Amino acid sequence: MEITREDIVRFIKKASEEMDANKDYLIELDAASGDGDLGMTMSKGFQAGAEAGEAFGEDDLGKMIFKIGSAIAAKVPSTMGTLMGSGFVEAGKALKGKKSLGAEDFVSFCQAYYHGVQKRGKASPGDRTVLDALKPAADAAAEAAAAGTDDPKELTRIAYEAALSGVEATKSMAPVHGKAYVHREKLAGVPDQGAIVGSLLYKAWAETF
């Protein structure tokens, strides 16, 4: 397995496209339990990330991923913008010096991304947040790589499907943070919008291959 600079450029472009395509849906979900601006911030943030990725000229992929995260956080310094940017920043640190990524490096990306978001946001899996998509994806990728999965198409598909399962699980979770907690009674059966953002990130990885 080898993930190249060109693959990462394709990935972040696809992530930007997914955030833009789902902008209205995310706005609708967020309006029920938040500020209603999630779709706009993710669309703008990931567009900035895609531009940063495409413009990056060095061969250090960790540094490239770090720059993508910094661009997202700078463009949309909202709660979710900061969280998603922090995931890339942490993953970039973990992959510093890498000129291509193998299966274990992809796992490192997934795990570092999750830990970066968790550390910044102070939430936990089960709190009905983006972590409920990111953690299953990271765990599934790690299990698949440990079992010998080396095909990027298969590995990213497994991570994406786990993220989708995480989104589905949020429908029965009670929120414990922010405005979602205030509106918790009307959120039963509704997926968490942050978890959907996390699943779109892994959808972009799967679509890259």
H/I helix tally: 10
For the secondary structure, the number of strands is: 0
Query: What would you call the structural class?
Result: mainly alpha
Query: What fraction strand?
Result: under 5%
Order of helices and strands: HHHHHHHHHH
Low-pLDDT residue spans: none
What is the makeup of the main sheet? none
Q: Using the CA coordinates, give the radius of gyration.
A: 16 Å
Shape: globular
Calculate the terminal CA-CA distance, rounded to whole Å: 11 Å
The overall average pLDDT, rounded, is 93
Q: Fraction of residues in helices?
A: over 70%
Kindly list the characteristics that best describe this protein.
209 residues; mainly alpha; 73% helix; 0% strand
Description of the structure:
With 209 residues, this protein is mainly alpha-helical. It is built from ten helices and no strands.
